[in-house]
Amino acid sequence: MLATLADLRTFLVTNEGALLRFRVLASTRYDLLSMSEAAAAKSELASAVEVSQRLEKVIAELRNLHELLLSGEGLDARILTDFRDALNRVRNTAWSAQQYLAQKTTGADSAGVLSLLTGERVRVAYQLCQALQADLKNSEIKFQTGPLIQLYLAAKALTEQLGDVVGKV
Fold it and tell me: What is the pLDDT along the chain (169 residues), one digit of tens a residue?
């Protein structure tokens, strides 16, 4: 597991090193990368660096939030619950992504990790449905019609798909 951002940098450097080794091996066999393959590899590396930079910023912000939470001032229980749920989703998704990358690197089957990630999405969807049901009962909350119609249509389509899947289980 990537415990620190330093570990993440090490992982990215290792990936870059593997990419460079591949290029050297390919050129010794006169099998050069095409321009599009090289551009894709460079884009993937740039994207990974961008993600690392964003993670550094988020880590700093989370440390600041940690200090604010410790003060205990001005805390709203509902917002804290939403915050904890969001952190759990990010934590679980990060863990799944890390497991997926590890299995992809070793050539192992990633279906198990994808199943875990899907299971997490189902759990989160259930929690969101419960929260939305409570919100819909609350007469103080005013909803916009458009998003409610979109939610209704998505829920209806999902219910039909779930009926097919649950019927097979």
Answer: 333 333 333 333 344 444 333 333 333 332 344 445 555 555 666 677 788 888 899 999 999 988 888 888 888 888 888 888 888 888 888 888 888 888 888 888 878 888 888 888 898 899 889 989 999 999 999 999 999 999 999 999 999 999 999 988 7
Answer yes or no: is 104 within a domain: no
Domain that holds residue 66: 1-75
Q: Is 42 part of any domain?
A: yes
Name the residue among 30, 35, 85, 91 with its Cα closest to residue 58.
91
Provide the b/e sequence for 94-107 (b: ≥16 CB within 10 Å).
ebbeebbeebeeee
Q: Report d(CA 27, CA 45) in Å as an integer.
A: 20
Interior angle at CA 118, CA 163 and CA 52, nearest 5: 155
Whether 68 is covered by a domain: the verdict is yes
How many whole angstroms separate alpha carbon 155 and alpha carbon 89?
Answer: 21
Q: What total number of domains does the chain contain?
A: 1
Q: Is 54 a domain residue?
A: yes
Query: Which pTM was predicted?
Result: 0.50
Burial of 113 (0-12, 13-18, 19+ CB in 10 A): buried
